[in-house]
């Protein structure tokens, strides 16, 4: 594969493109196993509203590794917007 400013050459065929987005797979962290707890939804760690790991008073999880339920009790997606909001939440929790 050859990536150029105006497209991509894939197996000898040129595909013109104005934007090129590269995606790569990721492997989930085994951090839940290190804590001796089950992972949920992609091996994430279940946290409370203050991002405290469920079952631990002094361990927090944030970002892709954490699983936080929204107001409807469904887990929030692992997206940048959610991670950014979680960061603000943790900052406020640490100020208490």
Annotation, overall tally of beta strands: 5
Nearest-integer average pLDDT: 83
Main beta sheet strand tally, sense and closure? 3 strands, antiparallel
Structural class: alpha+beta
Catalogue the unreliable spans. Answer: none
- Alpha carbon gyration radius: 19 Å
- The neighbouring-strand order within the major sheet is 1-2-3
Summed up, the helix count is: 2
Euclidean distance between termini CA atoms: 52 Å
Helix % is 10-25%
Question: Order of SSEs, N→C?
Answer: EEEHEEH
Overall, the morphology is elongated
Q: Estimate what percentage of residues fall within beta strands.
A: 15-25%
Notes on the protein architecture:
By secondary structure, the protein is α+β, with helices and mostly antiparallel strands. It has helices at 31-34, 80-95; strands at 2-4, 7-10, 13-16, 45-47, 66-68. The model has no long low-confidence stretch (mean pLDDT 83). The strands form two sheets. Strands 1-2-3 form a three-stranded antiparallel beta sheet, with no helix packed on it. A two-stranded parallel sheet has the order 4-5. The longest helix has 16 residues, at 80-95.
């Amino acid at each position: 594969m050859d990536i150029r400013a105006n497209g991509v050459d894939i197996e000898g065929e040129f595909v013109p493109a104005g934007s090129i987005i590269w995606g790569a797979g990721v492997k989930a962290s085994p951090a839940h196993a290190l804590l001796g707890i089950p992972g949920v939804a992609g091996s994430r760690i279940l946290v409370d509203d203050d991002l405290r790991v469920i079952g631990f008073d002094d361990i927090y999880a944030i970002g892709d590794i954490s699983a936080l339920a929204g107001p409807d009790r469904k887990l929030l997606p692992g997206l940048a917007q959610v991670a950014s909001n979680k960061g603000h939440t943790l900052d406020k929790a640490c100020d208490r």
